[in-house]
Amino acid sequence: MIDITTPYEYTVEQKAEGKFRLGRIALLLLYILYPATLIFVVGNGSAAIIAPLLAFIPLSLWVIIFLTWRYVKVSYQYTIQSGKLTFVKHYGTRTHKTQCEITLKAAKHIAPVGFREHDERLEIFAPEITYSALSSKNAADKYYIAFENDEGKKCVFFFEATEKALERCKMYNPVTVVTKVRY
Predict the structure, then answer these.
(1) Torsions phi, psi of 49, nearest 5?
(2) Are strands 84-91 and 95-103 parallel, antiparallel or unpaired?
(3) What's the DSSP call for residue 3?
(4) What is residue 179's predicted lDDT score, i.e. its pLDDT?
(5) Residue 34 in contact with residue 27, Cβ under 8 Å?
(6) pLDDT tens digits, 140-183
(7) Residue 66: pLDDT band by 50, 70, 90 thresholds?
(8) Radius of gyration over every alpha carbon of the chain, rounded to an integer in angstroms
(9) Rounded CA gap, 172 and 182, in Å?
(10) DSSP three-state, residue 37
(11) In this predicted structure, what is the pLDDT of residue 88?
(12) Helix, strand, or coil here: 100?
């Protein structure tokens, strides 16, 4: 028996691929080139008067890392509680942004990705807005929830399903297609 009052949470971390890999590489280059450029300019002699300011390089570099690295270290969390799924995007450990809330009872389709008939249903549904809580494009156990938001726009939410999540989705919405998943 499922206790519907306790929330079910599942979190996945975005793998470093695609734009996240490029972002990490670009930031690492910035973290290396920033102090190297300052040291070169001051060491060149043209700015010898500001040489004592080189002592602030470690502090300023730490501030730059503190403010920028979180945007390439993203994780996704979905919570199911009392028939409502809430999708939150976490940037590092400090910044959290709620992306969408879905009433599972009102969902049009809850089905796995990669099966022809379910993929065709999604194409026919033709979503305008896409939300993704997948760690990778090649993630296992990919599912989608097709729904309409409060403004009447067609939306789709992709997520990595677990047995407990599918159990709860099936309880709130009988159109849920349940398949064998890893967890």
Answers:
(1) -70, -25
(2) antiparallel
(3) -
(4) 83
(5) no
(6) 889 999 999 888 899 999 999 999 989 998 999 888 888 888 88
(7) very high
(8) 23
(9) 22
(10) helix
(11) 94
(12) strand
| Position 156, amino acid | V
Identity (one letter) of the amino acid at 140? A
- pLDDT tier for residue 28 given thresholds of 50, 70 and 90: very high
**For the whole model, what pTM was predicted?**
0.80
How do 129-133 and 154-160 pair as beta strands?
A: parallel
CA gap 139, 44 in Å, rounded = 50
Q: Which of 136, 168, 157, 95 is nearest to 12 (CA)?
A: 136
The owner of tokens 């047995």 is 163
Q: What is the DSSP track for 146-180?
A: EEE-TTS-EEEEEEE--HHHHHHHHHH-TTB----
Identity at 62, one-letter amino acid code: W
In contact, 144 and 113? CB cutoff 8 Å: yes
Query: Six-digit token pair at 82?
Result: 């009392």
